[in-house]
Amino acid sequence: MKPIKILRIAFNMVKSNKLRSWLTIIGVIIGIASVMAIVTTGEYFQNEVTETLEDLGGDTISIFASTPFNVVEFEEYESDEASTESDGESGGSIDRTYQEPKRAELTVKDVFTLRRIPGIEHINVKVNAGTDLEVGGKEIWVYVEGIDPGVWPEITTKKVGEGRMLRPDDLGRAVVVISEELAHEEALERDIRLNQMILLNGKSFRVVGILAKDGGLLGGLTGSFGASVFTPYDQVFEIEDAKLKESDNFYERDYDVYDYIDIKLYENADYDATLEEIEEQLRRSRKVDERTQDFYVSSSKEAIEGTKKLINGLTMFLAFIAGISLLVGSTGIANTMFTSVLEKTKEIGIMKAIGARNEDIRLIFLCNAAFIGLTGGIIGILLGTAVVQVILLLISAKMNVPFEFALSIKGTLIASLVSIIVGLIAGYIPAKNASELNPVDALRYE
User: Are residues 360 and 284 in the same domain?
Assistant: First the structure.
């Protein structure tokens, strides 16, 4: 029997029992739509979270000073009299005392050490401070990040929206680049414009650049939780010193001490090997070992990979739970196919009597099951995608960010294949039974 004829007969079987076929298809639609919605949403949020983490750190390696917690042990021996009572054995007790460790710092010496490592392309020193920002008589608290203006534009993932980024010749100048969120801060009751003067702890700074708003659904998080003012690191020292002089606990901070150091490697550098070399070189330079190490190295890449695995695992788990409904749908297809075999028994006998092979009968019923599965799959994909868009539209409106259409190609392909496979598996046994009917018994069937 020709393939076109087999497909036509199978399609007519679906049309002849519209109500039963659609009730079966609905079961497949629910399962596929659930899986499609979960996979698409999971993939979308994985991309958004990854993008947000990359905006906060990207593929950089950060080094922080970490003061070790030292415990010093010493033996305090008992008196000779106590020793005699214990048959001449020298008894003793071990006391533990807690030494207040020396405050750990990152200095220019560490920068020189890092520059000797071949895999490192850029080194950016950072000094942070929280301070008051004043514009037009209105005052708010802001987080200021002092950076190396010659390196920061090369290492950051942020883009400038207006004006320019900081340049190497800005070191020593009172200039800032601010975030888009701060430029339109409602608490200031006015927008901050390019080239405008602002006050940071009473010192005047000129705004030379305004960063572009981070894209995506979670893009606003980088502006909410990260720094909103960026300036050469030497300016933060001055802001911090001026602020500390106003307090009772004043100490003058050294200008070659940094809060942390960001590192970016060459594209072809061995990431893990360079990470190990950084720790080894710093231990040697700072004269510490693994036990007394007074710094730690944080890898943004590991954090991003860990987040991806977590979200992906959660998505697959939820998709598996939703996929249980596909089992219900496959049971409905099998039930429909068994009923169709009983209804078409005499027709099967006639087709066999005029020369139809067992394989032809089997293919007819398998195609019938595949049509039901594929129809339910297509509608389920469309319904699941529509549900995701509605959810993202509501979230975008709530968070006041632009709506972005989301479609998972992987989820679409998986859902399409699963819908066909479910139909074929559920229809195989009924199709096999139909193909093995004895034509004489089938013709006598009432």
Answer: no
Contacts of 423 (CB under 8 A, 6+ apart): 28, 330, 333, 369, 370, 371, 372, 373, 374
Do 288 and 336 fall into the same domain? Answer: no
Average of per-residue pLDDT values in the chain:
79
Assigned domain for 148 exists: yes
Tens-place pLDDT, residues 172-201: 899 999 998 899 888 888 899 999 999 998
Range of the domain at 191: 106-293
